[in-house]
Structures are given as C-alpha cells and as structure tokens.
Write a structure and sequence with these properties.
Blueprint (H helix, E strand, L loop, with lengths): L32 H26 L13 H8 L7 E3 L5 H7 L20 H4 L10 H15 L6 E6 L6 H13 L3 E7 L2 E2 L2 E2 L8 H6 L5 E5 L3 H16 L5 E6 L18 H8 L3 H11 L5 H24 L18 H18 L1
Parallel strand pairs: 1-2, 2-3, 3-7, 6-7
Antiparallel strand pairs: 4-5
Helix pairs in contact: 1-2, 1-3, 1-10, 1-11, 2-3, 2-8, 5-6
Length: 359
C-alpha cells in the first residue's frame, strides 16, 4: 500500500533558507542559479499577467477573470517539471502554467472576453483550454493517459484542480479508474483553502492527499508556496507516470490571496488576519529571499525581470483590446470538428430569429 509523507515537503523556508531533505532534495540537485532565476522570473510574470487581467476585468474589458494571486509557486514549479510531450489538463485558474507551456500572452484572455470558444490551440502547447466544469478535467486526463498508455507513448498527463474539485464525483471516478488501470496521471490539487466561500475543513476531515491512499495511489503533501519543493515532487510523480508506475496525487498547500473570480467578494467570508498570515508566506518573496541568500540577486536582474513582466502585461492588454467582437453566427462555428445536423438546424433557427429581430 502506498504511504503518504506525514508533513508537507519543504525545501525552502519562508525566509529563504534551504531545508535539508535527503529524499526530495536530490530530485532538484541539478537546479542551478539560472534555473532558480528562471523560476522567479516566470512566477513574477504570472503574477503580472494576473494583475493586468484583473485590471482589464475591472475596467469592463473582460467578462470574468479567475485570479491566481498567491498560487504562483504551485503553478510554475509544477509546470517546470513537465516534459514537452506531456499533456496538461487544466481548470480555469492555470494562466501561469499556460505561460510556461508556451501559450502566447496575447491568447490568454480571448475566452474571458467572450470573443471565442477557447483561448489557444491545445495541440500546439499540449495543454487544454480552461475547463469551467469543476473536476471534469480529471476524467479527461485519465482517458487521455490511458489511451496514450495503450498506444505505447511514454508520457505523463497532469490534471490541475482545486480543493473544491475533490468533492466532485468526477475526481473520485478519475482516481478510481486510473488506479485500476494504471493510467499515467499526475493529479495536482492546488489546495488554496477555499472552494469559493467553503473552507477546505468543511470538505474533508482528513488531508486531501490521504484520499488518494484509499484508491491505492501514492499521495504527497507539499508546501505549495515553495517552488523548489513543488518542482521536486512533481518531477517524482512525472517520472513514475512516464516509467509505467501509474498515477500519483500531489496536494500543494497554498492560498488564494485574491477572490475566487472577479465576481466574488472574499471579505464576506474570510478574516483579514488569515489573509495577512498567508501574505507573509508569499511565494515570490520566498524565492527572492533564496536568490538573495545565494548571491543570485542584483539590480540588473531585478530590472530585467520587471521589464519582462511589463512587456508581457502590455502584450496581454493590447491583444485584449484589439480582439474583434465575433459575429452572432460565429457562435455555431467549431462546436464539432465535422458538420453536425443539430448544429446546422440551430444555426438556421437562430438566423431566422435574427432576421425577425432586424425586420
């Protein structure tokens, strides 16, 4: 029976000091100074994307945006552990993962502006578009992984979801199927403590990683604000999946410092003291302190990171404002890859309706 670690894996403390961990430190022994700088840069860019998109929504340019503020280490650390041919199945909050996978910043907001059915070409970056149905991507990842296994492809798939999704039947079914058939899936749960207004303690009486053990899947808790630790445990799970070892479950313990979406007001259900506690554990501040301690921080690097983040934010804003409004009949395009009788019928009915409105 798989065993779970009795404490969250941590390799860097909030003050930037390294933690000795003979089990997990070797998994990132090859990570040098430039790699650490790359992690910090991508985390900073992810936050800047999030800040810009939130501002665009507040200014009426996006219909909705799901912030990732506070979850940068969980997303960037795990994304850096993936191989180019691994396939990502995301929820709706993984803009940071999308950036690392190579999604052009100009494409990150098209869905949220209501101008397209999707944001990017999934096959081009091996990552699905935002999944609005909570937990459904767990089943999609499992099916894809099992099919790839049958075809002999030595890849991993990774399913990102939040703590709230673990209360959905889709995730339970995905865990059961993947365990029974050895599907090479990494289940990556970003436990950000809040499923909209429901705290994680009301969803589970045991750590979420423990749930995996009931399916015979190894589960691990990791400090989700420690990018290096997240990188290590995700690498471990990806190696297991790609080598035929089957599924793994990672619970990255982090915190959603912003609202669930821009339609949410977290002050109605969350105490200010709780937010202040987690702000002191900010993942980007932690990585900066590590860089400072190891002599990898200087003003030139800081300016370069800021310039990169500002440039990406500018690209996001410019592209968002330039997206043309789609025509009403485009609603029926790309629903299916081939012509479909019911869609054709609905298209004709809607065209007749619009003609009636115009006349």
């Amino acid at each position: 029976m798989p065993e779970k670690n009795t404490y969250p894996v941590q390799l860097v403390q909030p003050d930037g000091r390294r933690v000795f961990d003979r089990t997990h430190a070797p998994l990132v022994a090859d990570v040098d100074g430039e790699d650490l700088r790359a992690l910090f840069t991508d985390m900073t860019v992810a936050r800047r994307i999030d800040t810009e998109a939130t501002a665009l929504q507040r200014q009426g340019q996006l219909g909705l945006w799901p912030p990732l503020l506070g979850q940068e280490a969980a997303q960037i650390g795990s994304a850096h552990a993936l191989h180019p041919d691994d396939y990502v199945f995301c929820s709706y909050r993984e803009a940071g993962v999308a950036y690392v996978r190579g999604v052009p910043p100009e494409q990150l907001t098209r869905l949220w502006r209501g101008a397209a059915h999707s944001c990017w070409d999934a096959d081009a970056v091996k990552m699905t578009n935002p999944a609005i149905v909570v937990g459904a991507q767990g089943l999609h990842a499992t099916g894809y992984a099992y099919a790839a296994h049958l075809e002999g492809a030595e890849i991993a798939t990774i399913a990102y979801f939040g703590d709230g999704a673990t209360s959905q039947g889709d995730i339970a079914e995905a865990l059961g199927f993947s365990a029974s058939w050895g599907a090479p899936v990494v289940f990556f749960c970003q436990n950000n403590h809040w499923a909209i207004s429901a705290p994680v303690r009301t969803q589970s009486a045991t750590p979420l990683a423990n749930r995996a053990l009931g399916y015979g899947i190894p589960g691990v808790q990791v400090d989700g604000n420690d990018a290096l630790a997240v990188l290590a445990v995700t690498r471990q799970a990806v190696i297991r999946a790609r080598s035929g070892g089957g599924p793994s479950f990672i619970e990255a313990i982090t915190y959603r410092m912003g609202p669930h979406t821009t339609a949410d007001d977290p002050t109605r259900y969350r105490a200010p003291a709780e937010l202040e506690l987690w702000q002191r554990r900010d993942p980007i501040d932690r990585m900066r302190r590590l860089l400072e301690r190891e002599g990898l921080w200087d003003s030139e690097f800081e300016q370069r990171v800021t310039a990169t983040a500002d440039d990406v934010a500018k690209r996001v804003r410019s592209a968002t404002l330039a997206v043309p409004d789609p025509g009403p009949m485009e609603l029926f395009d790309h629903v299916y890859s081939t012509p479909h009788r019911l869609v054709d019928e609905e298209r004709r009915e809607y065209a007749d309706y619009l003609e009636g409105v115009r006349s």
